[in-house]
Amino acid sequence: MLSILLLNGPNLNLLGKREPEVYGRETLQDVVKRLEKVMQEWDGHLEHCQSNHEGDLIDAIHRAKGVHNGIIINPGAFTHYSYAIRDALAAVEIPTIEVHISNVHKREEFRHTSVIAPVVIGQIVGLGIDGYEWALRSLAARVQSK
Hints:
- It contains 5 helices and 5 strands, in the order E-H-H-E-H-E-H-E-E-H.
- It is α/β, with parallel strands linked by helices.
- The radius of gyration is 14 Å and the shape is globular.
- Homododecamer.
């Protein structure tokens, strides 16, 4: 059975309220419901974890080994400096896609670098919350073809 872990980092619990001109008006719960509906197409399971704490995300990544076929992660600000999250993803060797709602490359300079990118399959940036669905569909196709 297909099982995907969806991880969202700091401040993503404020989706729909935080800078809606950048991140949109849909909430994180809207994102989760949408992806759960997509997972029904594969009769799969989606587990979601959002935390503003780096260690919580790392613990979730560690627990994913042997449980989930793939990970979708929006690390939020941890994208730019969390070598600990990067190392956790590398250690568990689970196919992972990094998602960002906004186009980070059109924003402030500090947002242009991801320390996570070298250990993931790829990134989806700038497609709003649609990016989560594209990540899920791509990840599901990859892990099911193996």
